[in-house]
Structure formats: structure tokens, C-alpha cells
Design a protein that fits this description.
heterodimer; A: mainly beta; 3 helices; 7% helix; B: 429 residues; mainly beta; 10-stranded antiparallel sheet; 6 helices; elongated
């Protein structure tokens, strides 16, 4: 049985491995950060277990906090509360050379509580990430001198969802429904700071500090159905509908609506042996509904799929350490106008560690992948992403 | 569900220690991408641009010059000159001549005044002196005035307002003394010179004492082309008291200098400096936008008020020495409130040099006005801005310079040079 000290020791060593992974990006070429396009880059709000299996979080035996399909609530045993922390490092190459950036987010926070024949879930999930920060030097040339300056353009924000889910098992079938608000905010900042003339001849120009704030609001409903056979085989499906997203620029009062996609997802997993599990998921998101709402970017529907294996053979002390490997791909909904839709692909891997007799579970995953292609989509990023999910369980 | 929740809230310290740092890290963080060209950089921006507005470009622009903020009688210097372009004389009065002096520890009555002289401290750097010894007469003479003067009103033609001299240049009476300066040149001219009085000194000085110095004394220069700028004047007396002689020095109780011709009147141009001192006043309304560029609400990165010098004045009142000028905010409408319109704070720290050489070369005079224009840009209720420009200190020079006004050709009109960043139009996705 794990003691509190062993739990801490195991957790820290696992965290060290995960940080080392995130610190080694793979360099590819790119032009602009993909988070600057359209409503941003979709964030797959998966837990680390599903992320390591190529994002195959639909119909995953053993349960997943991903809960893309609300019917998968019944795959989670007991009371669970957990969260996922997603750091990411991207590398892009511009005409001037290679550049790197880091970002991090809480991908999801989820609580699951069985209540009689029902299972209730409340979750907070990242949906679209709009963060970017570019800083570059430039020079203002006037009739009386030149003024070097540094310009910062920053977008800080994104779109999240609050999902309230309910599911009930009826024999081998589970039916579930999720509803909740979609919300978000985006703070856009422009800053321009002029250098002070060391000779004192030229005046010191007043810096530019300008910002605006957008808020987003919508709501979403998802319905799901699952079939599970004796903890050896599980299949799930989901259909979701999201109301038009309203963006409201607070300073100007300008509002705009964006049609949001209908989404469909399927997935399943099978335990091929007591130590080997295979999982796959895929889906379609009809972003093309929003095509007319965007002026500066192209919009297209998205296909995504992924899958992987979980090998449950290794142990650390008395705890099992499942190893996972997978691959996934997903179209990106937004791309520079006049270019082609881009794809995101990644190899995924990870491990899990159950401590304190299974009451605390650490899952870690890593992804090494890329998005886009400079020649075709106008941007090209490579990325290294980690997911750390910590969940506390009471059977 | 209700019975489980308190248990989760009561998790042990270890679980809290694991979760809380992660919860604290929920905010997204972002490192900067720095290798991006300005053309390709994502996000909204607005270029910072330079705009120059001349009087004709403003929604409204009016200007004027007012005179009289310093007069010769209050100036910290005096001019004595003998030029074809300028004749000038010093007038003074000594009303504090004593009737007793202190000898050791005793006040002793003055028996008589033995000698008298005028001591002048000459600012040789600001004077116009001969390069070589004069062949012609070059002397400085002191005369008794036959007529009293009012120092704040006296001019070449009037002893006081409405009371003309019998002879323009002051009604000169008896010659009190003359100092020959023929041998002196710009190199050898001393900083202090003394013009000794001759004749019946005691009678003269006692008469001044009994009449509070009336009517006064005048200094006149003979020496074609010479201008002496005098920074201090004193009456030096030697008084006999009992069995000793005591030196006494007295500053003038009233003094001024009168000159011919008078300072030229102001035309359509703007004037700064001179005596009587001139101030230029501007009242203008900045356009809300220029060529589609919104100025109201924009970031004013820098603003400079521009005055464009006209050519070197051809009279004797061209600025000949570097002085300073500053621009200041005016709290009322100078066009309607006149010369006594209340003034506010300076537009910028320090003052700008009025250098006659650069003014003659046509170099535009620039006064920082960033704070004033920023105030306008951020406050919709401000329509007109009122600005004055003056020399500092006022009355420090007889010379002045003329600048283009709103009535001048466009190339000479006053204006504003702005470095401005219009409001950013942050775009929706």
C-alpha cells in the first residue's frame, strides 16, 4: 500500500519525466501561430489516458474523463474528481529562422458521482485556444529622426464549456445527455514601446497601449449511446449540436454571430487480453456551417480519428503501470484564406500510475506532432504536448 | 451525492499539496514569438505616423501678438547707442543721496560733496564695440536733465505719457562730465567705466538731494556705430565730513533708456521678444481627422508646436544674442481677452533657444506640446486650444524676431507636427 511519501515520490518522478519530454520539441517550418486563425485552434479536452491512445476517448474501457460522449459516464467506476494540465511547446520557422513558444492550459476539470441508477458529471473543458504573443522590433522613420520600437501583439483567451452530464445504464446499454453553456473571453492587446534616444536629441515618444475585450457565449447539447459487454468490449457514439456563438466586443458594442458545428463521434475499445487493450475513435465536425461568418480565414469541416494500444504488464511496487501508444490526426477548421485546409497529426504515448490503492491516479501522456504545411496551408508548426491528469477516486 | 461531497472537501493534506499548485497554474501562459516580420505578424495593429498641420489645415486657427510685457524701465539692462539705425540714451535719477555718513561708529553730517561720477558696468560681450581705436570722437557724456521723466513711460519723444520732450532724445541741460573712449577697442574695453562729473559738484549733488534726484541725469554716447549694454549703474560720491573724506555709492532710484527709432509696430507676423516685450498667442481647433486618420481618441506619441521664422529684421531691433523662449497654455481666449489673458502652465520642461543665426537660416522653432495635445485627444469636450509664446526672461533683450502667422504664406504658417497612432481597430475573428 502506498504511503503518502511514496505517492509524492512517485508523482514527482513521473512529473520529471514528463517535463523532460515537453522540453524537446521537433522543429518544422511555419509562418504564423495557428491560434491566431479564426476562433483559434481546437483543443481536444482529453485526459492523459485517452491522449496517449491517440485521442481515443470515446467508448474507452476503464473510463475516461474525456467524456466526449456523455454515455461514457457509466464507464467510470465510483466517485471521481480530476483535472488535466496541458503544457505545449510549439516550434515554427519564419523567413528569418526558427522560433519557439510555450503555452499551457487546464484542459479539463471533471467530477463524476453515481447517484442511484444514474451517473452525474460536471466538467469544465477547454474547447478553442486563441492565445498567442508576438514581439518584434521595427523602426518608425520620421522627418526628424528614426525611432526604433518593440511591438507586442497579444491575444489572451479562448473558449470553454461547462458540461453537465447525466447517464443511465440499462442492461448493456447506456444513454447519456450533456448540456451546458459555451463561454469565453479574448483580450487583444497592442503595445508599442519606443526606445529612448541615448543622445537625448530626439524626444521620447509616448508608448502605445491599446486593448479590446471580446466575450463569447453559446450553449451546447450532446446525446450519447454506449454498449458494453462484460468489461471486454465497449462501443459509444455521440451527436452534438451547438447554438450560434455570439461574440461581443465590449469597447465598441459590436457583436457577431458564428454558426457552430454539428458534431458526431464514434469510438470503441476492446480488451484483447488481460494485459492488452486496443481503442479507436473518430468523428466529424461540421465547421463548414460557419464558413460565411469569417472574413479573413477559410473554414472547413473536420474529420478526426485516432487509436492506440494499452499494455498493462509492468508494475511499480504493488501498482500497475500501463504503457500506451497511439497515433491521431485531425483536420484543422481554420486556415488562411486562399490556402488549403491543414491537418494536425501526432504520435502519442504515455503511462499511468495508480497510487494509494487506486484512490489517486496519475496519467501522463506526450504527443509529438505537427500542424499544417507552409506551402499549402500558410502555416506550419511542430509541437510537443504533454497531458498530466490527476484524479482522485473513491470506489 | 450530498454525503460524498464533504468527504471530498475534507481530503487529506497530501492531496491538497498535489492539487493546489496545479490549480494555481490554470491560467494559460505564452512565450513570445519573436521571429515574425511586421508584415506577417498576426493581430490587430495601427501604424504610427507623422503628420504636419499648418494653419490652413486646422478646423480653426487664429493668432496675434501683444506687446508690453516688459518695458525698458523695468529691463535688467540699459542701452546707450550711437548708430545710424539706433540712438539710445540712459536716463536715471538718484533720490537717496545722504546728508550724513557713518565714520567709524558715528553718524557725521556731510559738509560737502567733493567729487561725483557715474560708474557703469558694461556687458562687453553683448555690446557693439570698435575693433580698432576710433579716429573719430568716441566718448560718453553725462548731462543734467532739464525735465523730469517717468521711467515706465519715457520714450525718445516723450518724458512721460502725453508730455513730449522739447528736444527728442531728452531735454539735455548742463554737461556734467565726459569720458573719452577713443583709445579703447573691443579687446581693451573694460567691464567697468567711470564718467567723472566736473563743475560745482557740491551744488549739483545737494540740489539733487533736496529735490529727490529730480529732474535726473542722462548718458549720451558719441561714437558712430557703438552700442554699450549696461548691466549696472551707480553714482559715486566723495563726501567731506569733519576732517575726512568718505566714499558713497548710490544706485539709481529710477532709470530707463530711450531710443530712436521706436520698436517697429507689429504687422501680420507673430513676434517674440523685444522691448516692449512681445508675446505671440495662438488659438486653434485641431481637426478631428486628417485624410481619414482619426486624431481624436488617438495616441499622441509626440506633438510639437512649430513657429517658422521670417527673415532677419532689417532694422536695429533684430535679435542679436541667443536668448530663450517657452510656450505656455493660456486659460482664456487671447483673441477676445486681450494682452492680460491669464496664463497657465508651460507646455514642456525647459525653454527653447532663440538663436539668431539659426533663425536667420530659417530653422523652425519647435515647442514640445505633447501633454496639451494628448489632453485634447482624450477629451471630446475640448475644442479650442490656446497657447502663448514668450521669451524667458521677458525683457532680457532689445532684439526680437518675427515669425509667420496664419495670414502668412503656407510655408511660413505656424502649425503642429504630430507623431500619432490612431485607435486600434481590433477585429473580430
Amino acid at each position: 500500500m502506498d504511503t503518502p511519501h511514496s505517492l509524492a515520490r512517485n508523482g514527482l518522478s513521473a512529473l520529471g519525466l514528463w517535463l523532460a519530454l515537453v522540453g524537446n520539441p521537433v522543429a518544422l517550418t511555419g509562418q504564423v501561430p495557428v491560434t491566431s486563425l479564426g476562433l483559434g485552434v481546437p483543443v481536444a479536452p482529453t485526459d492523459a489516458r485517452a491522449a496517449a491512445l491517440g485521442g481515443a476517448g470515446v467508448g474507452l474501457l476503464g473510463g475516461s474523463l474525456t467524456l466526449l460522449s456523455p454515455s461514457d459516464l457509466t464507464g467510470i467506476k465510483g466517485n471521481v474528481i480530476g483535472l488535466s494540465f496541458n503544457p505545449e511547446r510549439i516550434t515554427l520557422v519564419t523567413a528569418g529562422g526558427e522560433d519557439r513558444a510555450k503555452r499551457s492550459r487546464i484542459g479539463l476539470m471533471q467530477a463524476v458521482v453515481p447517484v442511484g441508477q444514474w451517473v452525474v458529471g460536471v466538467g469544465l473543458r477547454s474547447q478553442l485556444d486563441q492565445d498567442f504573443l508576438v514581439v518584434f522590433p521595427d523602426t518608425l522613420r520620421t522627418s526628424f529622426g528614426e525611432f526604433p520600437f518593440e511591438e507586442r501583439r497579444e491575444h489572451d483567451g479562448g473558449i470553454s464549456s461547462l458540461d453537465i452530464s447525466l447517464a443511465r445504464r440499462v442492461g448493456p446499454l447506456t444513454i447519456g445527455v450533456t448540456a451546458g453553456p459555451i463561454f469565453g473571453a479574448l483580450r487583444q492587446v497592442l503595445s508599442r514601446r519606443f526606445e529612448v534616444d541615448p543622445t537625448g536629441v530626439l524626444p521620447t515618444l509616448t508608448p502605445v497601449e491599446d486593448f479590446a475585450k471580446l466575450t463569447y457565449a453559446s450553449s451546447r447539447v450532446r446525446g450519447g449511446l454506449s454498449f458494453e459487454a462484460a468489461d471486454r468490449f465497449r462501443l459509444s457514439g455521440m451527436v452534438g449540436w451547438t447554438a450560434a456563438l455570439e461574440a461581443d466586443q465590449q469597447e465598441t458594442g459590436i457583436t457577431q454571430e458564428f454558426q457552430m458545428p454539428i458534431e458526431v463521434a464514434f469510438g470503441g475499445s476492446a480488451r484483447l487480453s488481460p494485459e492488452l487493450l486496443v481503442a479507436a475513435s473518430g468523428g466529424w465536425i461540421q465547421w463548414s456551417r460557419a464558413k460565411a461568418d469569417f472574413r479573413s480565414v477559410g473554414v472547413a469541416s473536420v474529420l478526426w480519428a485516432g487509436g492506440g494500444f494499452e499494455w498493462n504488464h509492468l508494475t511499480l511496487g504493488s501498482a500497475r503501470v500501463p504503457l500506451r501508444l497511439g497515433y491521431r490526426f485531425a483536420d484543422l477548421p481554420f486556415y488562411p484564406r486562399g490556402r488549403q485546409q491543414a491537418k494536425e497529426t501526432a504520435f502519442t504515448f504515455g503511462l499511468g500510475l495508480a497510487a494509494a490503492g487506486g484512490r489517486a491516479v496519475f496519467d501522463l501522456s506526450g504527443e509529438v506532432g505537427s500542424r499544417g504545411d507552409a506551402a499549402e496551408s500558410g502555416f506550419d508548426e511542430s509541437f510537443t504536448r504533454g497531458v498530466l491528469t490527476i484524479s482522485i477516486r473513491r470506489p | 451525492m450530498g454525503r460524498y461531497l464533504p468527504r471530498y472537501l475534507a481530503v487529506n493534506r497530501l492531496r491538497l499539496a498535489v492539487l493546489l499548485p496545479l490549480l494555481a497554474a490554470t491560467a494559460c501562459t505564452e512565450d513570445a514569438i519573436t521571429d515574425v516580420s511586421p508584415e506577417d505578424a498576426p493581430g490587430s495593429s495601427q501604424p504610427t505616423v507623422e503628420i504636419e498641420l499648418r494653419a490652413d489645415d486646422f478646423a480653426s486657427f487664429e493668432d496675434t501678438t501683444y506687446l508690453g510685457y516688459a518695458i525698458p524701465g523695468a529691463a535688467p539692462f540699459s542701452i546707450v547707442a550711437d548708430q545710424s539705425e539706433l540712438d539710445s540714451r540712459w536716463l536715471g535719477r538718484f533720490s537717496t543721496i545722504p546728508d550724513s555718513v557713518r565714520v567709524d561708529t558715528l553718524d557725521v553730517a556731510i559738509d560737502s560733496f567733493v567729487t561725483a561720477a557715474l560708474r557703469l558696468v558694461v556687458d562687453t560681450a553683448l555690446s557693439v564695440l570698435p575693433d580698432s581705436a576710433f579716429a573719430d570722437p568716441f566718448s560718453l557724456s553725462a548731462f543734467s536733465l532739464d525735465r523730469s521723466f517717468v521711467e515706465r513711460e519715457a520714450t525718445w519723444t516723450e518724458a512721460s505719457a502725453g508730455s513730449p520732450w522739447t528736444t527728442p532724445g531728452g531735454d539735455l541741460g548742463a554737461l556734467l562730465g565726459t569720458l573719452g573712449l577713443d583709445t579703447l577697442t573691443a579687446e581693451t574695453f573694460p567691464d567697468t567705466i567711470v564718467v567723472p562729473f566736473t563743475g560745482n559738484i557740491d551744488s549739483l549733488v545737494v540740489a539733487w538731494r533736496s529735490a529727490d534726484g529730480e529732474p535726473g541725469v542722462a548718458l549720451s554716447l558719441v561714437g558712430r556705430g557703438v552700442v554699450l549694454q549696461i548691466s549696472a549703474t551707480a553714482l559715486l560720491l566723495e563726501a567731506a565730513a569733519v576732517d575726512t573724506t568718505v566714499s558713497v555709492a548710490r544706485s539709481p532710484s529710477a532709470q530707463t533708456f530711450i531710443f530712436d527709432p521706436p520698436t517697429p509696430s507689429v504687422g501680420l507676423s507673430l513676434r517674440i521678444g523685444g522691448l516692449p516685450a512681445a508675446r505671440a498667442y495662438l488659438r486653434f481647433a485641431i481637426p478631428e481627422s486628417v485624410a481619414g486618420l482619426e486624431l481624436r481618441g488617438a495616441v499622441i506619441n509626440d506633438a510639437v508646436l512649430l513657429l517658422r521664422p521670417l527673415g532677419t529684421p532689417t532694422d536695429a531691433f533684430a535679435l542679436s544674442q541667443t536668448t530663450a523662449a517657452s510656450a505656455f497654455e493660456v486659460t482664456g481666449n487671447p483673441l477676445t481677452e486681450g494682452a492680460k489673458v491669464p496664463i497657465g502652465s508651460n507646455l514642456g520642461l525647459g525653454a527653447q533657444a532663440l538663436d539668431p543665426d539659426s533663425l536667420a537660416a530659417g530653422v523652425t522653432l519647435e515647442f514640445p506640446a505633447t501633454a496639451l495635445i494628448q489632453q485634447w485627444a482624450s477629451n471630446d469636450t475640448i475644442q479650442f486650444l490656446n497657447v502663448g509664446i514668450r521669451t524667458v526672461p521677458e525683457g532680457s533683450t532689445l532684439g526680437r524676431w518675427e515669425f509667420g502667422s496664419a495670414e502668412s504664406a503656407a510655408v511660413f504658417q505656424p502649425g503642429l507636427r504630430l507623431i500619432v497612432t490612431p485607435p486600434t481597430e481590433f477585429e473580430l475573428p
